[in-house]
């Protein structure tokens, strides 16, 4: 886990921020095999906090990347699919990030893992509702 700077405050709904990170990390764990690597980066750039969850799991083909943010849509929707889930985790992430005035996107390639980026307004010391600490 990497923070830059080491300690800063953000304006956010703590429960929603926790759910966002939980959903991103759950997917990273689900789609990264034993011995794989998952990294979390948190950056503050001016008035924006950026969260990145990176894994070296199975990745997502370019033609399937928009599907992951659509409710009940899954990349593998066959009856024999290997991974369980409802198809709601990432659409909820997108909605919650947008509620914070941010955006979410991904960079991925099949077989090369995924990078999920989300951002939200960092706010200022007078409006802070949560903290990000190591």
Main sheet specs: 5 strands, mixed
What is the N-to-C order of secondary-structure elements (H for helix, E for strand)?
Answer: EEHEEHEEE
| Average pLDDT figure | 78
**Straight-line distance between termini:** 8 Å
Overall spatial form: globular
Low-confidence stretches: 77-81, 124-134
How are the strands ordered across the major sheet? 1-3-4-6-5
Number of strands: 7
Polypeptide structure, described:
It is a single chain. The chain has 134 residues and is α+β, with helices and mostly antiparallel strands. It is 21% helix and 28% strand. The chain has 2 helices and 7 strands, in the order ββαββαβββ. The strands form 2 sheets. Strands 1-3-4-6-5 form a 5-stranded mixed sheet. It has a two-stranded antiparallel sheet with strand order 2-7. β5 (104-108) and β6 (114-121) form a beta hairpin. α1 runs antiparallel to α2 (89-99). The longest helix is centred in the N-terminal third of the chain and has 17 residues, at 14-30. It is globular, with a radius of gyration of 15 Å. It starts with a strand and ends with a strand. 25% of the residues are buried. The model is unreliable at 77-81 and 124-134 (pLDDT under 50).
């Amino acid at each position: 886990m990497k923070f830059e700077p080491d300690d800063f405050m953000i304006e956010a709904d703590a429960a929603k921020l926790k759910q966002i990170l939980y959903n991103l990390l759950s997917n990273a764990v689900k789609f990264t095999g034993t011995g794989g690597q998952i990294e979390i980066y948190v950056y503050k750039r001016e008035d924006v906090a950026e969260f990145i969850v990176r894994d070296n799991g199975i990745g997502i083909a370019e033609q399937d990347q928009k599907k992951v943010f659509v409710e009940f849509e899954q990349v593998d929707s066959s009856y024999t699919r290997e991974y369980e889930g409802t198809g709601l985790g990432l659409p909820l992430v997108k909605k919650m990030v947008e509620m914070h005035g941010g955006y979410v996107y991904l960079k991925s390639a099949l077989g090369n893992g995924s990078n999920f980026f989300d951002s939200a307004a960092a706010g200022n010391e007078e409006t802070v509702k949560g903290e990000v600490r190591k």
